[in-house]
Amino acid sequence: MKYTVKESTPVKHCVEIELPKDEFNICFNEAIKEIAENLEIPGFRKGKVPINMIEQHVGNENILSKAAEIAISKNWFKYLQETNIEAVSQPEVEVLKIAKENPFVFKATVETLSDIKLPDTKKITEGIKKEEIKTTEKEIDDAIEWLRNARAVLKDKDGPADDNDFVEFTYIIEYLPNTFSHMRGEQRDGFIIGKGHFIEGFEKEIKGMKKGEEKEIEGKIEQQLDKTQPEKMLIKAKVKITNVQKMDKPELTDEWVKTLGRFDTISALKEDIEKGIKEEKKVAELNRLRVEAMDKILEKTTIEIPPILLKREQDNLFENLKDRVNYELKLSIDEYLSQIKKTEQEIRKEFEKLALDRVKRFLILHQIAKNEKIEATDEEVATKLEEVMKQYSEEDKKNVDIQRLMILIADDITKEKIFAYLGLN
């Protein structure tokens, strides 16, 4: 095999590859054998048709086409290995010369990754200020209060709804933007007054209402799906209280704490809650540090991105949007686009900036892994795969794409190793 590079940029590579006659003859013979395995001609058993009859029956052109597939498949991957070209797309192939007993020539064009010149990534991450992980008494008390509320006994109440009462109600929103069409008609809901867990403005107005009482209430709904609308949208709704219940919360004692199953004293419960809060804050702080590190590395790095990677990320974002719209709004993507009066192309265009940022961050991590020879070992992937598979039932295991799962696990392990190298673990 010999080759001539026709074009080479940081994101594109075009090469002309020539196979000598003898090598292409081997591919031609392999093509005949493959065709013969499935060829059926009256008077011959399947796979036992003489070669000369195969050429007559199938035609030289079809055999050459199959031989070209074999030749391209073998020699394209061989070329990538020999040249260390990092292809990120399937090659666009053009056959330039093909004939029996002749050299075979084809041209392949592919999108590629090129090396990125990184700044001193360790120096950047070392300069990021880490926040001390602290917990407060209020955070611990709030967590205990949540436990008490979750185990409270509800008792019907005739009087007006007050703080810490549980209210149930129906509501009909009079004016509703298209984005929230799934909320049309009478809705039922409930919440604890004073916890701020419902539509902004409702809680204040519902406080003081009695069972059976009706009122028109204004509120604001948060939304992020329709970029043409404000993030907080004003609504009006007719609300009717269907039930008011007083929450009889258990008293905080050592005896009650024992009923939780894992603790003997209030102090032991508080210690466990404090430990849990610290772990959550550690994860949040670690994520903050990683984002800040990547931001700072990005500021000092110039990256050329293969168009195919940007398109793939836009595709992922659009698929995620489809899933969200279906799950949150109970709409198909076509119904959603019709309601917000936008096309798929316009939405994809809006995703371009986010997709670009995500791809850049991926490429920086990829380059660090490449520079430092960081990768997940087969043993690490196998161990993690075993852990993950234990979470599935025997029935669900049958539907798991093991190869895809292994790739995802290897990516996660590699990413954690990269951040460990940067001191962000």
How do the helices and strands line up, and which of them pair or pack?
Blueprint: E1 2-8, E2 12-19, H1 21-38, H2 51-58, H3 60-83, E3 86-87, E4 92-97, E5 104-113, H4 121-126, H5 137-150, E6 153-156, E7 165-175, E8 187-192, H6 202-206, E9 214-222, E10 232-248, H7 254-258, H8 266-299, H9 307-329, H10 333-340, H11 344-350, H12 352-372, H13 378-389, H14 394-397, H15 402-421
Antiparallel strand pairs: 1-2, 2-5, 3-5, 4-5, 6-10, 7-8, 7-10, 9-10
Structural account:
The chain starts with a strand and ends with a helix. The strands form 2 sheets. Strands 1, 2, 3, 4 and 5 form a 5-stranded antiparallel β-sheet that branches. Strands 6, 7, 8, 9 and 10 form a 5-stranded antiparallel β-sheet that branches. It has helices spanning 21-38, 51-58, 60-83, 121-126, 137-150, 202-206, 254-258, 266-299, 307-329, 333-340, 344-350, 352-372, 378-389, 394-397, 402-421, and strands spanning 2-8, 12-19, 86-87, 92-97, 104-113, 153-156, 165-175, 187-192, 214-222, 232-248. The protein is an alpha+beta fold. The radius of gyration is 32 Å and the shape is elongated. Helix 5 crosses helix 8. It folds into 3 domains: 2-113, Alpha-Beta Plaits; 152-248, Transcription elongation factor, GreA/GreB, C-terminal domain (Chitinase A, domain 3, Roll), CATH 3.10.50.30; 266-421, Orthogonal Bundle (Trigger factor, domain 2).
